[in-house]
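Justification of computing resources. Each target in the renewal requires a structure prediction run like the one illustrated here; the chain below, 484 residues long, is used simply to show the kind of job we budget for.
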Amino acid sequence: MASLEELRNERLRKLQILKEYGMDSYPSSSEREFSLVEIEKEFDELSKKEKVVVAGRIMALRGQGALLFLDINDGTGRFQALLKKGDLPDVLFKLFKDTVDIGDFVELKGNLFITQRGEKTIGVVDWKMLSKSLQPLPDKWHGIADEETRFRKRYLDILLNNELREILEKKTKFWEVTRSFMKKKGFFEVETPTLELTTGGAEANPFRTHLDDFDVDVFLRISIGELWQKRLMVAGLDKTFEIGRAYRNEGSSPNHLQEFTNMEFYWAYANYKDGMRLTQELYKAIAEEVFGTMKFVTGNHEYDFSGEWACVDYQEEILKQTGIDVLVSSPKEITEKLKELKVVYEGDNLERLTDTLWKYCRKNISGPVFLINHPKLVSPLAKSLKEKPECTERFQIIIAGSEVGNGYSELNNPIEQRARFEEQKKLLEGGDGEAMMSDLEFVEALEHGMPPTCGFGFGERLFAFLVNKPLREVQFFPFMKPKD
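Resulting structure tokens:
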């Protein structure tokens, strides 16, 4: 079997033959008249034309002697072509046989007909090279077996892996349905900064960089403009949303990546209960319009989006599963329980320990459910519950043992917001890299008055769960370490 270097050298030789003939192997344009999906849909009408011009990548090449069959793919569909000696000049027939390989992009001119086997085909009378490939495609039947190669050469994986392509097409529809739903509900789409002086809206370790023009250090955002969209509530807008990229300088896992797409909305004069009703409707719309079902399987969890979703109390669920009451237990008691449960944890402050204990418990919940009544300690941007001031008006959507949506009745009391930022500042100074940074300019905005507001966010993790794939598998180009 020839090595990749030998195969490349052979294609370089064919490239030289094309050059000597006078055919440009990398022209700047094509005379393509119809896409292959158009040819397929309008075959009967287009077959009446004397000639049509199509183009695409050669995915299969078979035959010998006076007949050559090939399959081409232009990204819209796949179609068969036939080169028959005598139907085109001998020199062009020979040039095709001597220089064309699977993987090449070609332009074909010919007439449409149906073969004796009933296959729609274009009979080629002229052709030209559009892009001569120098590297062979992987075996179409086996694709790319090595996972690292699949991600590093994602373009080949997408080309050869129909399942992956279908997933990525569904992901695009996932966001289209989300955007359409929000707009139909009267939400105004906005854009907010991705470079920030302080990160807000989540607890995560940010990426740091430097802005040369102002000579200041800045951060890539970790949320989709939470504190900026709240400023828009101050500005008088009543419903906003944004779909965009967020960045978190943290470890990778099947459910976590450093760069991902999220959506966040903010809704003036609404609270977390309004948000629960709206998001349940949104998720059901996504299930129906993107997947055509309400029933899903993720890992060993099965769940059904139909019907009304139950509510789970944060404190009660942890108490039921572990015997720990997080509202009264000390850091030492929670630490001992985590060790007993053999849970790996980082940090020794009460907030981080409480959150780690909850993450252990949520793995046992298939959902969909709304998690409610989170302690104030783990919800620095949410309003307190009147009937239970140590807890907050917050909800999370839980499916398959994980959080796939997070919402609040947003805190709009500037005095309390300043105090909570001070608590987060102490955590940061104590070494908690995921604690929230203080944003006193945001507090100043709140002092101008922000109406009661519900905020909510979710991301492509939800999509990954619904297709039962790791998050990395549903990204077009997941980040890869450089080769050594």
